[in-house]
Amino acid sequence: MNSSDKELRAFTLSALQSKEEFVRGVKYDFKQTKAVTEMLDTDLDKVFPVSLRTVFLGPPGAGKGTQAPLLSEYFKACHLSTGDILRAHVKQGTELGIQAKEIMDKGGLVSDEIMVNIIKNELEDNVACKNGFILDGFPRTVPQAQKLDEMLSARNTPLETALELEIDDSLLVSRITGRLIHPASGRSYHTEFNPPKVAMTDDVTGEPLIRRSDDNVEALTKRLATYHSQTAPIAAFYKSQYKWRGIDAAKKPDEVSVRIMESLPSDTVISALFRNKAEELKTLYHATK
User: Fold this and answer.
1) What predicted TM-score, i.e. pTM, was given to this entire model?
2) Residue from 141, 132, 156 nearest 111 by CA
């Protein structure tokens, strides 16, 4: 990072920390720095690149469907719910979708290789992935995590964090049985803890919400057993890479969101914060000239 880049970062942090002091020119004074002015208007990608790269882990009902879309919106990164994108490939009849459908029609499980290639295609072709990605639903096993690592490393976009939403099984029953889903976006609500503004209606689109057929106690018990036996060991895999972050998912959604933000790399968070405040900061900066 060159000196002008450092000046822009310093300017941004000072403005975010104390707007009033910044405007008065008490804390920092970069108003004569032409390079900073130019970069504010033209080259934000260079100085504040956003590249969120994380996976969500956690049992069904832990809150992945609530937190992942919020994170996606804040960082303007793609939220890849692997179940959704697999179904989309099958519906669209892509080459990978055709391969997956043939396997599923025979009652088999889609191979790890096909799933990794589907994710790779999304990262390369989905414009929304420019600022990074949030994986939800994959990996589910350690071999899948290893194959994912190989693909991401080959693309020079290695995973930064693995966020595990931790919650006792006993608390998941009420969460699951009251869950409501918006099928098109994956947004989730809860009849008690996070109800929509209008009953059974998505807050954003106004479209109907649904209850999943497997959101019942018997199905949940089986899904939790599968999670603990197959998926939970992934935490140890990511701990060995120092990428694992445990999040207390029993707290209120807003508190969970804060804890997630605290667990992400600081540079990634600062970059997104700058982008989200860009227009406001430009106004502040030019007001000092």
Assistant:
1) 0.72
2) 141
